[in-house]
Amino acid sequence: MEFGNSGSLSEDGIHLDMDRLKKGEVNLGTSIMAVTFKDGVILGADSRTTTGAYIANRVTDKLTRVHDTIWCCRSGSAADTQAVADIVQYQLGMFAMTNGKPPTTQTAAAIFQEICYANKDRLSAGLIIAGWDERHGGQVYSIPLGGSLHKQTYAIGGSGSTYIYGYCDTHWQEGMEEKEAVEFVKEALKEAIKWDGSSGGVIRMVVLTAKGADRHLYLPDTDYKVRHST
Amino acid sequence: MTSIGTGYDLANSIFSPDGRNFQVEYAVKAVENGGTSIGIRCKDGVVLAVEKVVASKLLKQGANKRIATVDRHLGVVYSGMVPDGRHFVDRSRDEALAWRDTFKTPIPTADLASRMGGYMQAYTLYQSVRPFGITAIVGGFDSELELPVDGEVGSGPAVGAGGKTAGKKHGGPFLYMIEPSGLYWGYYGAAAGKGRQVAKAELEKLDLGGAGELSLEQAVKEAARIIYLSHDDVKDKKFELEMSWISGADGPTKGKHQEVPKALREEAEKEAERLAKKAVEGDDDDDDDDDSDDDKKDGDKMEE
User: Fold this and answer.
1) Where is the catalytic site (chain A) (predicted)?
2) B118 at the A interface (CB within 8 A)?
3) Which end of chain B, N or C, is surrounded by fewer C-beta atoms within 10 Å?
4) Whole-structure pTM value
5) How wide is the angle at C-alpha B273 spanned by C-alphas B271 and B274, nearest 5°?
6) Residue A15 has what pLDDT?
């Protein structure tokens, strides 16, 4: 099996990430995002998983639960990100049991970052951690390829995100109502799916508030207009 | 002690038929001979104080600290065998650091108490070890503010985090006492060592507890007074008073565990000395009313 020249720096010191995946590895060529709003946070993602040009799964769920109200959006290698999320889910489960209280989003983000940074040479994982907790409300943390940790009001990621930086910058507002925020995420992802060849399929969302996690599903058949049951 | 010679006190890992672990009870005895240490948890912070017994005139004054800082916001004081206490502090620091490594956030006081309680309990289980000869008092101030994740890039956005549960308070001052058995409880006032009885009686009189109004600065003065009061000038060796305190971010120590400033300590100490002297003189007056022969006999007994 051939490996990419991962982790190497080119002469000018710029990191090249063109050949991160092994040949045939399943890639989440993706559009993902998470935004804070008035009552918490919303995660959103497309559902396309590819192996090269082939769509391996058209209804993937890239929004993964790591605790009741802490979820993550996964982009990069499907295998790597699933493995990392599994580890964090286990750790947070242990945390909740041993400490008798649910972990905070920060705690989750810290554990994610530690794994992503310690194994940066071997992982291709771009993650967005979003969660709601009693103390901090809704929070969004972004962990891009190198394993750094960034607290943000909203975060976008994956190959499709490049097309919607402008859209998000123009349309994101502080303290949106839930309805507005859902609409914002949906419109942004629709745009990303439209322009990005490796994004597509359905739009999935998870709304995290004091009330818990609420899943949304929007299908292309109805032009993403109708909220379907999951 | 009736237990001596029965064989049940020879090892940690053996219970006596009536369900006691004598090794642990002996460890408690070791603590009861140690210099008095106390902790006060008041509305805006925690005070730790210890009667540091000065074993020799050749020791440098004010050196050889007995209260240790375990993390920025955590302090530990102990009564009993000092080397055991030092090891307890070392381990506490390891636990605090390990917590920071995994969770990128300071360890809550309750969690440190839990970890160290578990650690001390493990030393009551095995043939190869003996229990700790200390009772430790752990004080801490868990931040009431939102803390950044350690190593987070930049200060993050000022806006965004919506949906907080309104009116809920987080963090605050906390105080725990851990005994040689590994047993630990949370306290508003804790005392260990030789003068614990006197100290506890005094602590109970303070305005602590849920709606307690005692302020941190008052608590420092009370702590000094209690240590002086619990010290017996006639029977006990000379001592130095050592005190530390922890306030919230808006208080005098800005959330950190620090030694009480010299000026404040000396002021508290002066007043404490005066009050203790007054209390002793008061005792003498009471004694005069009693039968003086009995006093002498009691005094003889203590000399044995």
Assistant:
1) 30
2) no
3) C
4) 0.82
5) 65
6) 43
